[in-house]
């Protein structure tokens, strides 16, 4: 019997097992069998054996899922190819039956290459004078998918799919070897997880979501037949088009094939074919821009997450590689955002500034001792669509960035931020405390102070020297750190800065996480200029809300600085914690920035600001933000800040459990006056949001500072007697009396 007759008679299985398949017709090619057979058994065998036989499976691209703090609320996904592998046990039996019926009815009989199918394809192609029928088994198709998905270069991708004898022979050889080490069920599972169904859906999990918004285990006969039919030509049989004739015909073909292999009954087949195609299409979110509309405000947090991810060396050698890893790595990311706190923050923000206001009002909340970002909220929509935006507040011919924008208004991107005014006094006070100067350090603070600092180029207020003044004449007189900070006395803090050194205040800001983002800030913060940067203490540098929230979170953590962190857990595709150099990537990254006693002392002064009152000193009768304690009704400290000409207005507040920073400014024109009527906006937003966030939690108390940082040794007894109304014992009693 000739080789050709053996093929036609289906008696080539022994030859296949021996590896002698070089003469078989190649699916998708019209080469005559005789031409291949003419190579001879020896030549054909040598040609075949020169090809690789083992399929090296490179991990395929998988979708990364991003969840809120509760590990259940989906924020968004990142993917190039939407894919999530699942076990065959989690698939409907209909889909496994349908794919075998439509693609390889002899799947359970062959050993990777179907000799009868090859012969049938050869005869059909000879009669047609071209390619009319293929002979690829499910195993061979899976090999092709694996080679395609694992391609590292365009050349490898082409070799995996091009119509050549070499490619088909390689598939055959690898298919035979694959079936030696894998069961049919394992191969079928991998096939269904790799197949492309259209609409960027790779694998049966994604396809079930996209077309029917359900899990694969819940697919019925009709749905399974439809999806199985798509594998052959997703575009040609796309059921989402208006004309569903092609999709219906293909579905019915699959149903007939299922009947043919006796997977279903004639009654089931007839009923299924009578039913119209019913889709429940869904577009799985991809990237920050496609977060569900009702939670659009999460987009700014998501954007911060992406920026953070692209800075992590664990995910690649450069930002491009890291972003690609985010889209292909199949991670499960549990973020730090708390949906309830975020919703509360948005409510209080929008109560004060609508989205269509040119003034941006935003707030960031951070958890002390972990650095985890609990909320990032701003009165904007996270959207690229600016068609309906209002006019730019500076360049009137342009569209402004409101109400829609993707600019990182809260931090984490390339924006410099906004001047934060007197909130920067915290750095001068911390630097002084760090040098051993006590809270009782006293200076006579006139309405205007002629400093030693030389003014920057431009009009000088007092000749060549910088001479700031206080906002009100009532601040004139002797002030300590408690009263000077509580009332925000400019002329006190300029004197304190002169004593400790402006360069030390700048260094303290750097120790607490500030980064200089403008040329002028970088120049003035440099070692050769920092000592002369007198205006630094009044907040003339640009800063982002996330940085300032974290500064005060460090105080709340008693000097334990933690990097701002948008994640609680990152799991790899195999369910393990993502690590780098032996450390869990999502773990807090903390170190001591200042001593606990320095942080406690600064906190004691910051209590004067909010109306809560200091534990170890006198606040001077009033503070700039007494409504904060009046609203929150629990231990709270902080600092307000307003710039010259009301270009921005800030409040940074903290309890032992949470720290927040809120601002109002015009991001399109940071020099624009926001109006004096907004001076309390951020104060109320912080107080109201923290009140909601901490509802039901214990009223944690601050630890007072030690005697060493309260007063100088020679003044200690006098200061303690004078300020006995504010000692820690009375402080505790007052908390108990005021209660809830």
UniProtKB/TrEMBL annotation:
Annotated Glycosyl transferase family domain residues: 75-258
Gene3D superfamilies: Biosynthetic peptidoglycan transglycosylase-like (1.10.3810.10), DD-peptidase/beta-lactamase superfamily (3.40.710.10)
Region span, Disordered: 694-740
InterPro entries attached to this UniProt entry: Beta-lactam/transpept-like, Glyco_trans_51, Glycosyltr_51/Transpeptidase, Lysozyme-like_dom_sf, PBP_transglycosylase, PCN-bd_Tpept
Biased composition (Acidic residues): 728-740
Biased segments, Basic and acidic residues type: 709-727
Hydrolase recorded as keyword: yes
UniProtKB keywords: Carboxypeptidase, Glycosyltransferase, Hydrolase, Multifunctional enzyme, Protease, Transferase
Catalytic function, reaction form: Preferential cleavage: (Ac)2-L-Lys-D-Ala-|-D-Ala. Also transpeptidation of peptidyl-alanyl moieties that are N-acyl substituents of D-alanine; [GlcNAc-(1->4)-Mur2Ac(oyl-L-Ala-gamma-D-Glu-L-Lys-D-Ala-D-Ala)](n)-di-trans,octa-cis-undecaprenyl diphosphate + beta-D-GlcNAc-(1->4)-Mur2Ac(oyl-L-Ala-gamma-D-Glu-L-Lys-D-Ala-D-Ala)-di-trans,octa-cis-undecaprenyl diphosphate = [GlcNAc-(1->4)-Mur2Ac(oyl-L-Ala-gamma-D-Glu-L-Lys-D-Ala-D-Ala)](n+1)-di-trans,octa-cis-undecaprenyl diphosphate + di-trans,octa-cis-undecaprenyl diphosphate + H(+)
Coiled-coil portions: none
Domain Penicillin-binding protein transpeptidase: 364-668
Keyword Zinc on entry: no
Full protein name: Transglycosylase domain-containing protein
Organism expressing this protein natively: Paractinoplanes lichenicola
